[in-house]
Design brief:
single chain, about 350 residues, alpha/beta, Rossmann fold, Nucleotidyltransferase, domain 5, 3 domains, 6-stranded mixed sheet, 5-stranded mixed sheet, 12 helices, 18 strands, about 35% helix
Length: about 350
């Protein structure tokens, strides 16, 4: 986490120096003569993950008001008095790491962290932070609405189609999706009104002819996932044989969707056939020297033996889908940055 520390009084600057020496990734933002705090923070806003402002909270609020965008992009802001008695997590308490930072600097000064986020004051999990750490995908509207249920009712009933080792405070298991507030699943077959959290646990294995454009991969994936009733938000990665690692259309398809591609050698693919029963493709053997591409690369990428879909063929593309191991736990690691 890159931390900027700014102070305006002599006592505040002394404390700022102490914190800068203590906190990893911290540096002082020393105001030049005549420079306004608003000007300093405006420059720092895009360059730091966190800002510690040792001054009155009112000064900070007025200075950052024009800079606010949203909690996914704004730095966290902690306000502290020059005596170090109170560290107020003002902005970005959960995803931004403001609550954790306030606790850290309060511990250093012997002061008290002031945390006002509802889940923390009730001893409940910060749902957005937990979802991020568990690699669950949900839009902001879903996170906000589900978090409101959690803090207003004190619990959130969760149905999960993944392994559950443990759940954090306030989240309780539901035996059926129909009785749950939220569902963790890669499937789109469930009906509203549940909130949906998508686990990143699907690997799409892909084979293709030379020169296949990115649009054909997109059309094939859309058709396949609609038929299988799977959410593309659950795609963790793509996989293929290493002979396709320079295929422009495939690389562009992955880039457009921000998906990683894992490439495997023909030897790795052929060795897999000795462990599990896979159909041998004579066409693949002739073209790339491997028993297949889509199915074995999906399984190798997922590090599992569970195929949700055997290979499907289109004119220039083959695809298969494998499910990777995925589990939920109660642990929420302390954030060190966004």
């Amino acid at each position: 986490m890159k931390i900027g520390i700014v102070a305006i009084t002599a006592g505040g600057k002394k404390l700022a120096g102490e914190l800068a020496d203590t906190l990893e990734g911290a540096c002082l933002l020393d105001p030049q003569e005549g420079q306004k705090i608003a000007e300093i923070l405006a420059v720092a806003w895009k360059n730091f993950d966190a800002l510690i402002c040792i001054m009155a909270a009112g000064i900070v609020v007025r200075a950052i008001a024009p800079l606010l965008r949203d909690k996914l992009h704004d730095p966290c802001v902690v306000v502290m008095d020059e005596k170090g008695r109170h560290a107020i997590s003002l902005l970005g308490g959960h995803l931004g790491g403001g609550n954790a930072l306030a606790n850290t600097i309060a511990e250093h000064t012997g002061g008290e962290a002031v945390i006002t986020t509802a889940s923390d004051t009730q001893g409940l999990v910060a749902l957005d932070l937990w979802a991020k750490e568990q690699q669950l995908v949900a839009d902001r509207q879903t996170l906000t609405a589900a978090a409101a249920v959690l803090v207003n009712r004190g619990e959130l009933r969760l149905y999960a189609e993944v392994t559950v080792h443990s759940l954090p405070p306030g989240i309780i298991p539901a035996d059926e999706a129909a009785f749950a507030d939220a569902t963790v699943s890669s499937s789109t077959r469930f009906a509203a009104p549940a909130f949906f959290f998508r686990p990143r646990n699907l690997v799409v294995g892909i084979g293709c002819n030379r020169g296949t454009p990115a649009g054909e991969f997109e059309e094939a994936l859309s058709e396949l996932f609609t038929e299988l009733q799977l959410s593309r938000h659950s795609i963790r990665s793509l996989a293929s044989i290493d002979k396709k690692n320079d295929e422009p259309g495939l690389l562009q398809f992955a880039l457009d969707n921000h998906w990683r591609i894992d490439f495997f050698t023909g030897e790795q693919i052929n060795n897999l056939s000795s462990l599990i029963n896979l159909d041998i493709s004579q066409a693949a053997l002739k073209a790339v020297g491997a028993i297949g591409v889509a199915e074995p690369s999906a399984l190798l990428g997922a590090k599992n033996t569970l195929l949700l879909s055997r290979k499907r063929k289109w004119k220039n593309v083959t695809m298969a889908v494998a499910e990777a191991p995925f589990s939920l736990s109660a642990q929420v690691p302390a954030p060190s940055g966004r």
